[in-house]
Write a structure and sequence with these properties.
Elements (H helix, E strand, L loop, with lengths): L1 E5 L9 H12 L4 E8 L5 E5 L2 E7 L2 E3 L2 E3 L3 H11 L4 E6 L2 H7 L8 E6 L7 H6 L1 H10 L2 E4 L2 H6 L10 E3 L13 H13 L4 E6 L8 H8 L6 E6 L5 H7 L6 E5 L3 H10 L2 E4 L10 H8 L4 E4 L6 H4 L6 E4 L4 H12 L2 H18 L2 H14 L1
Parallel strand pairs: 1-2, 1-7, 2-4, 7-8, 8-9, 9-10, 11-12, 11-14, 12-13, 14-15, 15-16
Antiparallel strand pairs: 3-4, 5-6
Length: 371
């Protein structure tokens, strides 16, 4: 089968959608595949990546976080005419690209809409593109959501439940090999913070990731706790300013996979403080759980976060954006080693049963075969 993948960006760009797109590509290796996405630079670049042709269309500007590329329509037209895909997998949201794809909806190909999240923050864009979103959903052969929570909580998906299936995102354990180097890294972290309860959070420093709430929660903890925050972003400076007198918090920036594994192994509690439906699933949350760490999360109606980690079973869930409640959950876990161990074991088990790459591959292959 000839399969065209349409993603916002693609590896080595790091992001949840990009990782899922790559996992799908690497699952469907027996098929003929192409992928079109944006390039962060202005020039269009074509290359063989992961064994398939990847067309990265030069990006000239961004509006409301959405990329714009003057040459996109021309490149997509060429692919649709010359490659003539039998199946298109379109990763949503990507409203400006949806405008170009809509021109080909009368052609004879199967269409999978991979629904990562609703457009939440950009309310004007959501209203402006509502018509084309509905057209895509009506045309879709199948609609993939990453959790049942997101189907029920979406503005659009409940009307198309008969087309919807759930394929959870996955933890690709190949990224997280535990070797002597990662064990040494974990030992170093624990020894440096001897006797303290180590909390770890990682993600982009943007509003919906809730790192501000985590920094504020730290103010309600005592000196027996240490919080490491990985990642970076536009809020990094303001977060550091908010935490400047709090010795319990260390910002470690972007780290390699090996260092990341070291922190996953070393920590006692995994903090995942996202606060809005922009966090549709939480791959980093599943990763922390994979290492047997209990999670502390906020309640996010309609998000898959509370599907990934189950309150009272794999972690503790508290009222959205309530930093004091978040701190109390951390304290509860910090003061009860048996609770940490029980929830951590359950967390590992939940990932092994639901969110492995092997399970993801089976789900994707079944999807393709069934259509």
């Amino acid at each position: 089968m000839r399969i065209l993948h349409i993603s916002n960006y693609f590896f080595p760009h790091i992001g949840g959608i990009e990782q899922v797109a790559r996992d799908i590509v690497n699952t469907l290796t027996e098929h003929e595949q192409k992928l079109i996405c944006f390039n962060h630079e202005k020039g269009t670049k074509k290359e063989i990546f992961d064994g398939i042709e990847v067309i990265r269309v030069g990006c000239q500007a961004k509006i409301s976080s959405q990329s714009l590329a003057i040459g996109y329509g021309k490149e997509l037209k060429k692919i649709m005419n010359e490659f003539n895909p039998e199946l298109v997998i379109f990763h949503y949201p990507n409203p400006f690209v949806a405008h170009y794809l809509r021109k080909y909806l009368k052609r004879d190909f199967k269409l999978i809409i991979y629904w990562h999240l609703d457009i939440v923050k950009q309310k004007f864009l959501k209203r402006f593109f509502k018509g084309q979103t509905l057209a895509l959903l009506r045309r879709a052969t199948r609609i993939v959501a990453t959790s049942p929570n997101y189907i029920d909580g979406s503005e659009f998906l409940p009307a198309f439940k008969d087309k919807c299936i759930v394929i959870p995102n996955c933890v690709n354990s190949a990224r997280f090999q535990i070797d002597e180097e990662t064990k040494d890294e974990a030992r170093r972290i624990r020894e440096k913070n001897n006797g303290k309860i180590i909390c770890f959070a990682v993600g982009r420093h943007i509003p919906y990731k809730g790192m501000e709430q985590l920094v504020r929660a730290s103010k309600h903890l005592n000196e027996n706790y240490k919080i490491f925050i990985g990642g970076s972003g536009p809020l990094t400076d303001s977060l550091k300013e908010l935490a400047k007198e709090d010795s319990k918090i260390d910002f470690i920036g972007k780290v390699s996979d090996k260092t990341l594994v070291g922190y996953y192994l070393a920590c006692d509690i995994f903090c995942f403080p996202s606060i809005t439906k922009n966090e549709a699933f939480g791959i980093a949350l599943a990763e922390g759980m994979y290492f047997g760490k209990p999670a502390v999360t906020f309640t996010i109606p309609g998000s898959g976060v509370n599907f990934v980690s189950v309150n009272g079973e794999t972690g503790i869930e508290v009222e959205n954006s309530n930093s004091e409640a978040y701190a109390k959950a951390i304290l509860q876990l910090g003061e009860d080693s048996e609770l940490r161990e029980r929830l951590g074991k359950n967390a590992r088990k939940r990932v092994e049963e639901n969110f492995t790459y092997q399970k993801f591959q089976i789900n994707i292959k079944n999807l393709i075969e069934n259509i």
